[in-house]
Design goal:
About 35% of the residues lie in helices and about 20% in strands. The chain is α/β, with parallel strands linked by helices. It folds into 2 domains: about 25-85 and about 265-505, Aminopeptidase; about 95-260, Glucose Oxidase, domain 1, CATH 3.50.30. Strands 1, 2, 9, 12, 13, 14, 15, 16, 17 and 18 form a 10-stranded mixed sheet that branches. It has an 8-stranded mixed sheet with strand order 4-3-11-6-7-8-10-5. Strand 16 (about 390-395), helix 12 and strand 17 form a beta-alpha-beta unit. It is elongated and about 85 Å long. It binds zinc ion. The site of zinc ion has 7 residues, from helix 9.
């Protein structure tokens, strides 16, 4: 009864004022707003928002300008709305890089051989050779191979797509080898295409403290068979045993030098956009909820990984993830209208580099612009504009009490005609495939809003016209109500202990 009385008092005395405030704010999230703003960043002129690119910088600047117009505080570096992070741009030196067999052939990168990882000095690394073949599954077994200081020629089973990862796992287990040459089968059309791309500009995160990687290159059977034959080894026989037990032998009298150097190495940078709405509670305002989405996409078929299957070769990524990005912009606008503001502070974060490997969210999660332990939740949206009209998949519900909060809030808002359902594709591993994962790993409870993939995924046809902005507006309103509830509760969200033990990892 006591609870009931409090509830009635709250309803009649406090709720009407607050409700009006909330209603006005949430109603600012409209289909027209979504369409108008998605049109800006999913325009052809943004060239698919590739990381890094001038057009992505332009997208970030435009979002920062939106945040400024809502009255948000800059949450980036040096009093701006932008947090830039460093990337390394490199280009292999195809002239200087090569594999030299003493008394035998020389293989050049881009012509006969392909680079996987690791650099050498100008002199290369040269030594005697160990031949390794058989199933590379167990790294513990691989670690026992007597290959210290040797160039390892690894014959892997053909017809599998996992040669790269199995070999990498192996190499992690034998860091004492000098270099590795992985032999992957017959040359084919794919191989020709891969070789033709060896001279391309490569971009990688420059803030990670990577372990020095052992140099690894790939060659095809046709190149190496004569060299092995000259040392009494039949590649055909070895290949026949490539799926069997792991074996190694030294190839007496054979010496190989591997040299991989870059022609160009430079540091560039790319942006995340960060806006902050300060909370109204004197204590809770020191805690933050992060609303996130990725503003980058896969670029064009010339610059990027846009699949040229039709159309203009520009992947506008209207759903992936202009939909989520503009959702975050709409949320920022709505919460900023509130008076009083939500109790906890809110961070509106649009990251880059998601499509390249969750770079921007990893950078923010490891270099947050507010104290890391004060971030209490992350609500992420990636692709929320397509498929069904009345459900949204919310991934991660089972891992923290954010799931129960979501269910309660969802039940209180039948007018949205939007049901938050559990992950219906657990086998696809979406939990690990968007930016929220970088927050989860760091111990921050998350929810990930997602309406599923479709035939236009990573294609030029992922266009604004196909976005159901009316449906999306109801999803964003649901996120608004959930975010508000999390912001105003006395207690911060809590992990389920088993999930915490399973998911949270020390950050590199
Ligand atoms: Zn995406």
């Amino acid at each position: 009864m006591r609870k009931m009385i409090i509830w009635l008092v709250a309803l009649f005395c406090v709720a009407p004022v607050a409700a009006q405030n909330v209603t006005e704010a949430v109603n600012s999230i409209t289909p027209d707003d979504l369409r108008r703003r998605i049109a800006v960043i999913a325009d052809d002129s943004m060239r698919g928002r590739y990381t890094p690119s001038p057009e992505l910088d332009q997208t970030a600047a435009w979002i920062g300008e939106q945040f400024r117009s809502f009255g948000l505080k800059p949450g980036g570096s040096e009093g701006t709305f932008v947090q830039r992070y460093p990337l390394k741009r490199t280009q292999l030196d195809l002239e200087a890089s090569r594999v030299t067999v003493e008394g035998g052939p020389t293989w050049h990168l881009g012509t006969d051989t392909r680079w996987w990882q690791g650099m050498t000095g100008g002199a290369g690394v040269g030594s005697s050779v160990a031949l390794v073949w058989g199933a590379l599954g167990g790294t513990e077994e691989v670690a026992t191979l007597p290959v210290d200081g040797k160039v390892v020629i690894v014959v892997v089973p053909t017809g599998t797509r996992s040669t790269g990862s199995t070999a990498s796992a192996m190499l992690a287990a034998v860091p004492s080898a000098a270099a590795a040459i992985v032999v992957t089968g017959e040359a084919n059309e794919l191989w020709t295409r891969q070789l033709s791309r060896e001279s391309r500009m490569r971009v990688s995160p420059a803030w990670r403290r990577n372990a020095v990687a052992m140099p690894v290159v790939e060659v095809k059977d046709g190149s190496i068979a004569p060299v092995l034959a000259a040392h009494g080894v039949s590649l055909a026989e070895t290949r026949g045993e490539a799926a069997g037990a792991l074996q190694s032998r030294e190839l007496a009298g054979l010496s190989v030098n591997v040299k991989v150097v870059n022609a160009l190495e430079e540091i560039v940078s790319t942006p995340n956009t960060v806006g902050i709405l300060e909370g109204s509670d004197p204590t809770l305002k020191d805690e933050y909820i992060v609303f996130s989405a990725h503003m980058d996409h896969v670029g064009t078929s010339d610059n990027g990984s846009c699949r040229l299957v039709e159309g203009d070769g520009i992947c506008n990524g209207a759903d992936d993830d202009a939909s989520g990005t503009i959702g975050v912009v709409e949320l920022a606008e709505a919460y900023a209208m509130m008076n009083p503001r939500p109790r906890r502070s809110m961070i509106f974060l649009t990251v880059s580099g998601e499509e390249r490997g969750l770079w921007g969210s990893q950078y923010f999660a490891t270099n947050p612009t507010v104290p890391a332990n004060r971030i209490v939740a992350n609500l992420n949206a990636d692709m929320i504009g397509r498929n069904w009209t009345d459900t949204v998949v919310v991934i991660g519900k089972e891992h923290s009490d954010l799931g129960a909060t979501l269910n309660e809030v969802n039940a209180r808002h039948p007018e949205l005609n939007m049901t938050a359902i559990d992950d219906i594709w657990p086998d696809q591993g979406f939990y690990f495939r968007s930016d929220h994962y970088n927050f989860a790993r760091r111990g921050i409870p998350i929810l990930f809003f997602f309406t599923g993939v479709h035939d236009d995924y990573h294609r030029p046809s992922d266009e604004l016209e196909l976005i159901d902005v009316e449906k999306e507006s109801r999803i964003v309103k649901l996120i608004f109500h959930v975010g508000l509830e999390v912001a105003n509760r006395d207690e911060r969200p809590q992990w389920n202990p088993e999930s915490y033990a399973e998911i949270v990892r020390p950050m590199p």
